[in-house]
Amino acid sequence: MASQQVTLSFLLSLIVGFSLIALHSSQGDKDGPFALSVVLNASDIRADFHHFWRSTGFCPPQPHNDASFDLSSDMAQNLAYIGALPFNGITQVRIHWLLDLIKVSRISSAGPVYNFKLLDSLVKLMHQNGLALGFELMGSPSGLFTDFENRTQVFWFRDLVSVLATRYIKKYSLDYVKKWNFETWNEPDCHDFDKIKFSVQGFLNYYDACSEGLEAAHSSLVLGGPGDACWPDPITGKLTKSRVLFDALLNHTIHGTNYFNGKKGIRLDFISLHEKGDAQGLKILEREIDASKYINSKYPELANKPFYNDEADLLVGWSQPKEWRGTSEYAALIMKFTQRTLLARFQMNSTLSEEEHDKRDKVSVDQDTKSKLVKQSYTTFVRKPAYILMGMLPLLGEKQVYLNITKYFTNEVLSNSSDFGVLGTVHLPEETTKSSDSWQVTFLAYGASDPGTNKTKAFLDLKWYLNPPKDVKDLKLMMYTIYMKWGDPYVLWKLHLNSTTFPTLDDFAQLREMENPGGNLIDVPVRQGFAPIPPAFELEDPYIAIMHVCARPPVGPEKVVGVRLLNITAGQVMVVWSDENIRTKCILTYSVEWSPSNPNGPFIRINTYNIIVNVFIYETDSDKKVQGFYRVRAVDYWERKSSASDVVTYTDPA
């Protein structure tokens, strides 16, 4: 029987970036198993809590002006997955070489005439998935721009930026484009300019053209940079290249003269750098500290600017095939970096993160097909633990609460460089109209050591002081976990499926179930003060536990919207939806329902396990089994169902 070849991609290698000024460091905990005492007081609010990790990105391969990667069916799936993270888990995708998607049709007496067809298609895909662009003004349409000391080209580039921004404001609204972070050419001191002459003055002229072009479109559009990486290592002092353009740009924004209007001082809405970790998580933090100290001392006028590390790779060289990238070890490290950043208390007012660029571990998959003559190829994705974590982090609230973590017997405070950590937040419902919103407390604990180091474990004793509001009558606690035994499809594939090159449909069913965190729902007594919740559990390494306490909302969840269907291959459909109308985060599962022949039903639930992200892959062995009508319902912790979404139809894509 002929085989059908598929590229199986373990989705989304993620890494988190930070913004901070100082961090205390001490010896980590490598002395074997030990016990930790944790006290959480939900009524003791200490600070605002910002969900700063909501950006990811990718770089298309050479040639950059070939849109086949950006607009491929693989990328359509990838962006659908990213947009399907619950409750705006990721909101921005930062993309290299976007301007190379624009073509020059002709040069008129008024200047270049552009064809935006390919870029339009990509922006449409982003908008469809509810994602904003991290729009690097990087590339040269049809190779038009060669020298930014050429006055004509500088003015043409300003006009291009203005036309581009105005175009998408008209297509999608100012509110949408205002969410974009426009950014300068990526890592300018690394000199990857694709044959464009970028002298220091040319780079400053280019920056002014970016700024003035955006200003002409609308004054509220955001521009930052330089997204630099090639500057001295803070440990060795080794200079890879130079930071000439980085320093020139920052100095220019303070003291320079605008190329177009001659005014002194040019806007810079955020400062971006790329600090990476050499496979050691705390190295990223140390380098960010050094970078922020350098900026604050040399450019004090910019000390209050938001500071983004928007390519904070744990390991330089995102495409290096490291096995830990696909496992729960990576997810736990992301959580560790996130908690360490928050612990440092030096987030700036719009801090973003950059997950490491999409890395794919490819395997061929064999699937029986009725056609003996046709050999087809397609790609499907299996979600990594890092992606699963990104689906859990939205459960964190908007306020940090008091947490005390010490070692048993000694009462020694856990060091900032420990491989274990905790985080606590509270969500206070909006006091407006009746909705499914309610009071919530979230506790997160992790064990995470750097790749290649010794592992240990901790026994965690947690004492809850919930103190719920007086109107709360019913509480439930959901405990989600990610570790090697659950929420880690790669380990399942390797150890239990023997790294099979050809997964069957049954194998895929096991992998799909493992794409979700292990969940356990229990009732919690409503009382002030100490809450007798099952307090102790073992914290392994790697391990992530998220405990979400939720007050019963006055009503069930709101209606699911935006259901749509993407064909993967014969007999396989991706069902995607939006939770934008849903006010509660106390979602037990979504019920994906299908009717083979009638939009009025009867419908049957086709997901055999609970799912908390806004996507489901329906995999069968024939197109006939997936054709029909689909709808989705949300189900809360009390098993109250929302009304059904609008029904959508799937027919044979051929």
Low-confidence stretches: 1-28, 344-376
CATH topology of the largest domain: Immunoglobulin-like
Strand residue percentage: 25-35%
**Which word captures the global form?**
globular
Overall CATH class of the largest domain: Mainly Beta
Q: Mean pLDDT, as a whole number?
A: 84
CATH superfamily of the largest domain: Glycosyl hydrolase domain, family 39
Distance between the termini: 22 Å
| Secondary-structure class | alpha/beta
What's the tally of helices? 11
Number of domains: 3
Protein name: Alpha-L-iduronidase
InterPro entries: GH, GH39_as, GH39_C, GH39_cat, Glyco_hydro_39, Glycosyl_Hydrolase_39, Ig-like_fold
Family: Belongs to the glycosyl hydrolase 39 family.
GO biological process, one term: carbohydrate metabolic process
Q: How would you describe this protein?
A:
There is one protein chain. This protein has 654 residues and is of the alpha/beta class. The chain has 3 domains: 1-49 and 275-555, Immunoglobulin-like; 91-229 and 242-274, TIM Barrel, CATH 3.20.20.80; 561-650, Sandwich (Immunoglobulin-like), CATH 2.60.40. Helices cover 21% and strands 28% of the residues. Strands 2, 14, 15, 16, 17, 18, 19, 20, 21 and 22 form a 10-stranded mixed beta sheet that branches. A hairpin with an 8-residue loop joins strand 25 (587-595) and strand 26. Helix 5 (200-217) crosses helix 6 (244-255), helix 8 packs across helix 9 (385-392) and helix 10 (489-496) packs across helix 11. It is globular, with a radius of gyration of 25 Å.
